[in-house]
Specification:
With about 325 residues, the chain is α/β, with parallel strands linked by helices. The protein has four helices and 21 strands.
Length: about 325
């Protein structure tokens, strides 16, 4: 009987080691930074390289190794000569200060389109401003405004929002440091409908004291901590998780309906000292859901994660927290 040797390529280990070394040299300044979008546009070359690895690696492992070394040499050549060909991007830290007065506004719709930077969102001290933002970043900040009594505001960074233009990522190298951050202040004088588009950065969203009417969050790949405000009238929160991490601090004496579409990340919901809670899991998915032990399961059975759990006095309580999990995904959801 013919023996078949198992194909084990050493191409990818060599490439990973080489890419790591090149990235390190770039961060240390030995190789000039270039636009990542330029590299992304070369993605068809990756298909060719994979095909060559499959063909050559099956003939002889040393051919696969030579191919890996050739790829690394080619990458270094691209990084060295690309700036002279016009593919470099100036690494200049920009500082933008943007603000909008409260004026005649009685309510506002605010859309925060975050990017790579660390972001701090908190209530404003000023009674005269609707929004104020200090942005230290490698993009160009913008604040679009429309409406009068009901204003609509969009705050973001040109070339920096990944969900709009992922070919415009900043350069590899020195511009990934801690010098990039946004500090955003929002008014607590009028009702706000808030959307937050998270990304690769770390975000701390402190909404305590704001008059929130609705909140939509896209966590994306970064980490985010959200502190929700107290509201006797109640409001809805819609969260679309992804590969990042999310911590949500829930308030006491409030009726909040929270919809979560979980994914590959980790989501933690921190309950107040006294609470009345109902949790509905519509699709258990591949991940894990950890619930408070004092909740009673009123639908579903066995080990299945789908079902409904609630506090004993949920029907008669004045203030209720409702968490609806439409999909768990491969990540984890903790309610504690």
């Amino acid at each position: 009987m013919e023996n078949h040797r198992h194909y084990r390529s050493i191409f990818w280990p060599i490439v990973l080691l080489g890419v790591g070394a090149v990235w390190l040299l770039t961060n240390l300044g030995y190789i000039q930074s270039i636009d990542v979008g330029f590299l992304v546009r070369l993605w068809p070359v990756l298909l060719i390289i994979i095909g060559l690895d499959i063909l050559l690696g099956r003939i002889a492992p040393w051919l696969s190794a030579l191919l890996g070394l050739a790829v690394i040499a080619g990458l270094i050549a691209v990084l060295i000569y690309a700036p002279s060909l016009g593919f470099s991007r100036p690494v200049t830290l920009n500082v933008d200060h943007l603000e909008e007065p409260l004026g005649n506004a009685s309510s506002a719709i605010v859309d925060l389109r975050l990017s790579l930077e660390s972001v701090d969102v908190s209530p404003l001290d000023s009674d005269l401003k609707l929004i104020e933002a200090d942005m230290h970043h490698y993009g160009k900040g913008y604040l679009t405004i429309s409406g009068d009594t009901q204003k609509k505001l969009v705050l973001g960074s040109e070339g920096g929002n990944l969900s709009e233009n992922w070919f415009s990522w900043p350069s590899i190298g020195t511009n990934w440091g801690n010098d990039q951050y946004w500090k955003v202040g929002l008014t607590n004088r009028i009702p706000l409908d808030l959307s937050v588009d998270g990304s690769l950065g770390s975000s701390e969203i402190n909404l305590s004291g704001l008059k929130l009417t609705d909140l939509n969050v896209n966590v994306s790949m970064g980490s985010m901590e959200i502190t929700l405000p107290v509201s006797a009238e109640g409001y809805d929160v819609d969260i679309n998780g992804s590969a990042g991490s999310l911590d949500v601090i829930l308030p006491a004496n409030s009726s909040i309906t929270l919809h979560l579409d979980g994914s590959a990340g980790s989501s933690t919901f921190i309950l107040p000292g006294k609470y009345v809670l109902r949790v509905e899991v519509l699709d258990g998915g591949l991940g894990r859901v950890d619930l408070p032990t004092e909740l009673t399961r009123i639908s579903g059975s066995g080990d299945a994660q789908e079902g409904v759990w609630e506090s004993a006095d949920y029907d008669t309580a004045v203030y209720k927290l409702l968490i609806i999990i439409s999909h768990v995904g491969p990540g984890s959801i903790n309610i504690e």
